[in-house]
Amino acid sequence: MGIYTRTGDEGQTSVIGGRVIKDDDRVEAYGTIDELNCFVGQAISLIDAANGNFEDLREHLLEVQQELFDCGSDLAFVRISETKYKVRDEMVTRLEQWIDQYDAENPKVERFIIPGGSQLSSALHVCRTVCRRAERRTVTLGQHTDINPSVRRYLNRLSDYFFVVARTANARQQVADIEYVRSKKVFRRKE
């Protein structure tokens, strides 16, 4: 099989169940998820260079990459029955458990955090912002076509996960988060 097919030269691409223009909302949504997956791969590559114990994070990020493919697959279908969806709400619940686990390691935060600190933390913040864009693209798609609502919930929770693990990456490397100093105290930790 060749890498190039020439079938997209006129500005259309194939989705499961038909063809659409390359800037169709569906392509924008799963394309942004693909972009996110690339940034997650980059973050995984930084784990080896990081000074800290990140084997649990590596394992979770590898699972997230698989699930991002599932998200893209669910959005690539023009017509699909609910029984064929790959992304389920159980995946969202598991993300919430991971968020709680990692957040327990993080120092208390009261102000907004400026992305940065260690290289790994910075890469995970990039993942967070691209994930938010993927979520926005998925919301746009869902305004005019049926989508798997679990994908939207998964992406929403995943961006929270990236925020928390970016802070964990700094904490494990003993690098302070950078607080937005002009912010009032906006976060209150549940006791």
UniProtKB/TrEMBL annotation:
GO terms for molecular function: ATP binding; corrinoid adenosyltransferase activity. Residues 3-169 form the Cobalamin adenosyltransferase-like domain. Its EC number is 2.5.1.17. It catalyses: 2 cob(II)alamin + reduced [electron-transfer flavoprotein] + 2 ATP = 2 adenosylcob(III)alamin + 2 triphosphate + oxidized [electron-transfer flavoprotein] + 3 H(+); 2 cob(II)yrinate a,c diamide + reduced [electron-transfer flavoprotein] + 2 ATP = 2 adenosylcob(III)yrinate a,c-diamide + 2 triphosphate + oxidized [electron-transfer flavoprotein] + 3 H(+). Signal peptide: none annotated. Pathway: Cofactor biosynthesis; adenosylcobalamin biosynthesis; adenosylcobalamin from cob(II)yrinate a,c-diamide: step 2/7. Gene3D superfamilies: Cobalamin adenosyltransferase-like (1.20.1200.10). Keywords: ATP-binding, Cobalamin biosynthesis, Nucleotide-binding, Transferase. InterPro entries: CblAdoTrfase-like, CblAdoTrfase-like_sf, PduO-typ. It comes from the Bacteria. GO terms for biological process: cobalamin biosynthetic process. Belongs to the Cob(I)alamin adenosyltransferase family. Homotrimer. This is Corrinoid adenosyltransferase. It comes from Paenibacillus barcinonensis.
